Amino acid sequence: MLRRFSNSRTFLDNLRLGVFTALIAGMVNVASLVLFYSFTSNLTGHFAILSQEIADGKWFQMLVVLFWIILFFSGSFLSNNLIINSTKKNAFISHSIPMVLEIGCFVFVGIYGQFFYTETLTQTEILVSVLLFSMGLQNGLTASISNFQIKTTHLTGLTTDLAIHLSMLTKKEYRMNPQVVEKTKLMAAIMGAYVLGGTFSGMIIHYVQFQVFYFISVAMLGVLTYDFVKTYVPFFVNKKKHDTAIQLNIDKIQDSIKNTAMQKNRVLSESK
User: Fold this and answer.
1) pLDDT digit string (tens) for 232-255?
2) Full-model pTM
3) Domain containing residue 225: CATH number
4) Domain tally for the chain?
5) How far, in Å, CA of 67 to CA of 154, rounded?
6) CA 97, CA 78: separation in Å to the nearest integer?
7) How far apart are CA 133 and CA 72, in angstroms?
8) pLDDT tens digits, residue range 181-219?
9) Per residue in 58-73, is it b (16+ CB within 10 Å) or e — as a string?
10) Residue at 27 is within a domain
11) Per the domain annotation, does 58 fall within a domain?
């Protein structure tokens, strides 16, 4: 899911990444809406609030909302910066760092919310800030490694694109185009996964409260572990086979040298 980059990714790679990250985004957005009365997986509403605060002359509130926007921006910037500066050798590590940071954000929100949160405005603003940063990380990660084919933290543009692609499929020439069909399936799957994640989060949030962020973190750790195994286990297995083959060749060469030396000694002894 995280191992391949840009054009080297297949449709299934993007489908897995899109579905999983859409599930996470849906769960986080609904959880933040229930717990903090704020959306955190997208910025459309925050820009509207920013404009309203400026119009009302509420400068402190304006700075808070501006800080939220900057945090989302910073998360996306950090993810993309790590990815575009990675190499083939450290691609998995570079792609994993944003997810590790995202997990850290979720664990922080879960622990603080469960044990220290007293529902003050300042605490709410801080926790919303952390979640916006985490969603920026995720959006930057998915967009960068998928060559900007996947954006799962908001659905406005995706809904428009899906409608356009579905209208294209009314013509036979587009139905015969694998790229158009695959793109349509990918967007529909992302939308469905987002709704599914949000629905699941809404069903359990009243029972588990902030512990929902632990479930999300465990799921993300599972994906990282899976990708780690798929990336490095074959490498070590192949390396071991390669080392074994080299050692066998060395042994054969040494045996050949010994046999040649023995034959020369025999010839010399017979000649004497």
Assistant:
1) 555 555 555 555 555 566 666 666
2) 0.79
3) 1.20.1250
4) 1
5) 19
6) 10
7) 5
8) 988 999 999 999 999 999 999 999 989 999 999 999 998
9) eeebbebbeebbebbe
10) yes
11) yes
